Amino acid sequence: MNDPAQRRTRLLAAAAVALRAESDVLNPLGELFTAAGHELYLVGGSVRDAVLGRLSEDLDFTTDARPERIKELLDGWADTVWDTGIEYGTVSARKGRAIVEVTTYRADTYDQVSRNPTVTFGDNLDGDLVRRDFTINAMAVRITADGAQDFIDPLDGMTALLAGVIDTPAAPEQSFGDDPLRMLRAVRFVAQLGFRLAPRTFDAIGAMVEEIDRITVERIAVELDKMICGEHAIEGVDALVATGLADRIMPEIPGMKLTIDEHHQHKDVYQHSLTVLQQAIDLETGDPDLVLRWAALLHDIGKPATRRHEPNGGVSFHHHEVVGAKMVRKRLRELKYPKAVTDDVAQLVFLHLRFHGYGDGRWTDSAVRRYVTDAGDLLDRLHKLVRADCTTRNKRRARKLQETYDDLERRIAVLKEAEDLDRVRPDLDGNAIMQLLGLPPGPQVGQAWRYLKELRLDRGPMDRDEAEAALKQWWAERTAEAVPE
């Protein structure tokens, strides 16, 4: 069905069905506001998602009622009400499984310096819709006691939605000048919806890219995470780079666009990384995995800094995993990512090449134990990242790599059956070490513990007598070395 009019009719019909499914929330809420003499409209992303068949239980509304009046009405209806956004005209509530946000019509003004508006409450729906970020988010549906009624679309957001285009209600320069975060939100919608930027929107972002510096790194990180977790993350990353936004907020990504030498001795690192990201996404079995996706995209960011042209005409990237892990830590810390996320992504980048020393199963059991221990809780993600990192077009080589990794996973499974690989610890704890060696608490106990852990990794599980004998021998040799002649 390619006719736009027919598609419009079909999508509106599907949206009506989706909204009827929410009648247990919409009808009572509509009746509540209508009886109080107020208008109520479902608005923004909720209408867009209803049309796209992806309506969630988070519902956004707008109304002519002022914030205090909204709170009064919701207090008598909802299970829980919170007013943390009331100064901006928003009151939130939970009713059963649904989360609703009701906001007074807004007619804000901006100073083009900060992104914080001077909040002004409006008196009509059209004025509220025209101030919104994109036309696809500027549609509304009137809600009454009978549920969803009229579809309101003064800015022709449906046409943009049908065309898969992200455009602003007013001139994009005005919109992005008011709130530069909208530039990054545009990229995020590319990633979430698979839409493309309207030419004038794309051009405006490119011309105004420095304005993103007005936005706090915390808000930037939130949008980046929504982008990378989008269903169309590859297109989102590409838009981030093409608009120039990536140069301002994560320059390591466009920095991977290395010039390919005339002999094509190495792949384009940027395109390779997008392929790895897509293959990692394909390996996910549940919700989007933020850590895995960032690790897949950034696993090779150390290559530009480590590229060397060899005498034989080849190209090498020695230790790019070490450099890349440091770069990941620096960038994510600057964006104020949680420490756990930063550590996990950096560790995956650091470990992603380790497997390539496995060869044809030449690793000892000790090496396999170290692989598992170093990965820790990240082992499943590391499995996926390593498999995703195989992008060769040589089918025989690709099959060989996958079979080799299958063999490594089998060996890990066998060792896990024989010993607790998930918790490789020394066979003696700190108290036992102090008692055996007659040591007080201090750094020497830690050194002995680390020796036993290394021994455990090399030999596998030992009984207590073996562990004690090994520790005594190590301590005797260490003590003898420390005695001056």
From TrEMBL:
Record domain HD: where: 269-385
An annotated Gene Ontology molecular function: metal ion binding
Top-level EC class: transferase
SUPFAM superfamilies: Nucleotidyltransferase, Poly A polymerase C-terminal region-like
Coiled coil: 391-418
Gene3D superfamilies named among the record's database cross-references: Beta Polymerase, domain 2, cca-adding enzyme, domain 2
UniProt keywords, alphabetically: Coiled coil, Magnesium, Metal-binding, Nucleotide-binding, Nucleotidyltransferase, Transferase, tRNA processing
Source superkingdom: Bacteria
UniProt cofactor(s): Mg(2+)
InterPro entries listed in its UniProt record: Bact_CCA-adding_enz_type3_sf (IPR050264), HD/PDEase_dom (IPR003607), HD_domain (IPR006674), HDIG_dom (IPR006675), NT_sf (IPR043519), PolA_pol_head_dom (IPR002646), PolyA_RNA-bd (IPR032828), tRNA_adenylyltransferase (IPR014065)
Keyword hit for Transferase: yes
EC number(s) given by UniProt: 2.7.7.72
GO term, biological process aspect, one: tRNA processing
Name of a matching Pfam family: PolyA_pol
NCBIfam families in alphabetical order: HDIG, tRNA_CCA_actino
Protein name per Swiss-Prot or TrEMBL: CCA tRNA nucleotidyltransferase
